[in-house]
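Hi there,

I know you've been waiting on this one. I reran it after we fixed the sequence typo, so this is the corrected version. Both the input and the resulting structure follow.
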Amino acid sequence: MDAPTWSQGEIAEATGMPKSTVSRLVKFLADRGFLTLLAERNRYSLGPAAIDLGRRASALFDIRGLCRPVLEQLSFETRETVILTSVVGAGGAVRCVDQIESTREGLRVFEQIGSIFPLHAGAAPRAVLVLLDEAERDRYLSRQLAPITDRTLVDPVALRQNIALAEKTGYVVSYGETYEGVTGIGAAFSWSNGCPAGSLAIAIPTPRATPDVVKRSGELLKAACLRVNALLSADSAASQPKDGSQ
């Protein structure tokens, strides 16, 4: 089905589904913006929701390349381990998709690329939780939350207090919540439509994480996420059709 538009009959023929099933499915997708009805021809094309979903999937595949210069700058500025995450699936977790290891002597933090963490556990995941709208956040915090270490915040009241502080400062700080002896500082970035896309984090052995270091790291992360937001917005704008194009 490589054609730009399809009739219900063509969809039924190509998929082998009964026409009644196709009719219900097409209506469902059209109601949600994944298909657009071209009324003059009674044919369907991809709708704005499908186009946006494809753009987001495309950006996700290249998010490492898009963010790599920002990650390298953070690494240069801090010499600590810096981490890039992306939101997983329906948004209940993040996955580490890139990292640059600390160049400092002595204790260093290493994160395995591909590791997945729930949104309540640690700085990088919780930074995404901060960006969720209140209803989504309430739904998440109503779950039974499991700890990763003895210091993982799982109490909804404590989590809300931590989130409220992060909303004021612009970044999340966690202490030993995913790995003992590691302080994490994280901030999140968004797709052009405002939905959380992922986060950047700095992981520091706790003995080096003085208040001044934590504050400086948080400010660097805020600036870095602004740069990523700009990159994602520019990437989205570049993928949109120009005025007058079909």
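Quick highlight: DSSP finds eight helices and eight strands in the chain.

Best,
R. S.
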